[in-house]
Specification:
Shape: globular
Structural class: mainly alpha
Helix content: over 70%
Radius of gyration: 20 Å
Order of helices and strands: HHHHHHHHHHHHH
Number of strands: 0
Distance between the termini: 50 Å
Oligomer: single chain
C-alpha cells in the first residue's frame, strides 16, 4: 500500500472515530449525567442521517438540511421521551432499543422513500464519495498538497470539539448538577423541588440532537445510506467507548473513540486464516476483551471517577 493510500485509510478511520465521538457525547449526557440507559441511541443517529439524505435528494440545500436534521432528531427524542421517561432503569432501556429497531425496520421497508435495503444514494449531495466535496478537495490538493480526505476530517473533529465545549459549559451550570441529582436519586431530587420528568426530557432531547449531528456527519462520510448502518451494535460500541473513556468525562469520550476506532480498523491488518466476513467478529471480540479488562482493573474508565458509576434507575 502506498503512503498516499495509507493516509487515505487512516484519515477515514480518524473521521469515523470523530463521528463516534459526537455520537457518544450525546450518550454521555444521557447516561453519564442523567442515568438514562438509552440502548436505542443509534435510532437518533439514523434520523439525522436519513433526514439529511432525504432533504438533499429532494432539492433542499445541504447547509439548510443539516440544522433541520439535527432539530428533527431532537424533536424525535422529546416525542419518544414523553410516553417512556416515566419508566425506570431496565424498562426504559428495553423500550429505547425497541424504538431504535422499529425505526430501522420502517426505513428498511420504505423502499419508495428511503431506498430500503438498496440504499439511499447521493444522500450527501455535492459532497462526493468518502468525504470529498466537489471542487474543494481538488483545490486543497492542488494548492497546498493537502489530501482530499482532510476537509471532512477537520469538519468532523471541529464539530466534536464544539459539542464537547458546549457540554463542558453546561457542566458548570446548575442544570447539570440537577441532572446528576436525578441520576443519583430521583425521589430525593423530586423531594427538593426538581422537575425530574422535565430534566430527563431535556437531557434526552439534547442528546438525541447530538446523535442526529453524528448522523449528518455519517452521511457526509458515507454518501449512501443503508438500514444496516444503524444496527444496535453501533449503540453498544458507543457504550464501549463510554466505559473505556469514563462516565462523566467528555475528554474520555474523545480518547475512547480514537482508541476503539483504531482497534477496529487495526484488526484489518491482522494476518488471520479466516474469511473476510468473520473479521468483524474478531474486531468486536478484541473490543469486548478490552472492555472486560477495563471493568476488572479500572471500572471507572481511563478518565472517569468511581463516584460516576453509581447509577440509580
Amino acid at each position: 500500500m502506498s503512503s498516499l493510500l495509507a493516509f487515505d485509510f487512516w484519515a477515514l478511520v480518524l473521521t469515523y472515530a470523530g463521528i463516534m465521538a459526537v455520537f457518544v457525547l450525546g450518550l454521555q449526557l444521557q447516561v453519564g449525567d442523567t442515568g438514562l440507559l438509552n440502548f436505542g441511541h443509534v435510532g437518533f443517529m439514523a434520523i439525522g442521517a436519513y433526514g439529511t439524505g432525504l432533504m438533499v435528494t429532494n432539492g433542499v440545500p445541504l447547509l439548510l438540511a443539516i440544522p433541520l436534521a439535527v432539530l428533527i432528531a431532537a424533536i424525535a427524542g422529546v416525542l419518544i421521551g414523553i410516553p417512556t421517561l416515566r419508566l425506570r432503569g431496565d424498562y426504559f432501556a428495553i423500550v429505547t432499543i425497541a424504538a431504535g429497531e422499529i425505526l430501522r425496520i420502517i426505513i428498511m421497508n420504505s423502499q419508495d422513500v428511503t431506498g430500503g435495503t438498496l440504499g439511499l444514494r447521493g444522500a450527501s449531495g455535492s459532497w462526493g464519495r468518502r468525504g470529498t466535496w466537489k471542487g474543494v478537495p481538488g483545490w486543497f490538493h492542488d494548492t497546498f498538497g493537502i489530501n482530499q480526505k482532510v476537509p471532512l476530517l477537520i469538519l468532523t473533529w471541529l464539530m466534536a470539539l464544539v459539542v464537547a465545549l458546549f457540554l463542558r459549559h453546561l457542566g458548570k451550570s446548575p442544570w447539570r448538577r440537577a441532572l446528576r441529582a436525578v441520576r443519583e436519586n430521583e425521589d430525593a431530587a423530586s423531594a427538593v423541588g426538581k422537575n425530574v420528568f422535565k430534566l430527563k426530557l431535556q437531557s434526552l432531547g439534547i442528546g438525541a440532537g447530538i446523535a442526529g449531528l453524528s448522523g449528518v456527519l455519517f452521511t457526509l462520510y458515507q454518501t449512501s445510506l443503508y438500514p444496516d448502518n444503524f444496527l444496535p451494535i453501533v449503540t453498544f460500541i458507543g457504550f464501549a467507548i463510554l466505559i473505556l473513556g469514563g462516565m462523566g468525562s467528555y475528554f474520555g469520550v474523545i480518547v475512547g473513540s480514537i482508541v476503539i476506532g483504531f482497534i477496529i480498523a487495526g484488526a484489518r491488518f491482522l494476518d488471520l486464516p479466516i474469511d473476510g466476513d468473520k473479521l468483524a467478529a474478531v474486531q468486536y471480540m478484541v473490543v469486548g476483551l478490552i472492555i472486560m479488562a477495563i471493568m476488572a482493573f479500572r471500572p471507572q474508565g481511563l478518565f472517569g471517577k468511581k463516584e460516576e458509576l453509581h447509577l440509580d434507575g
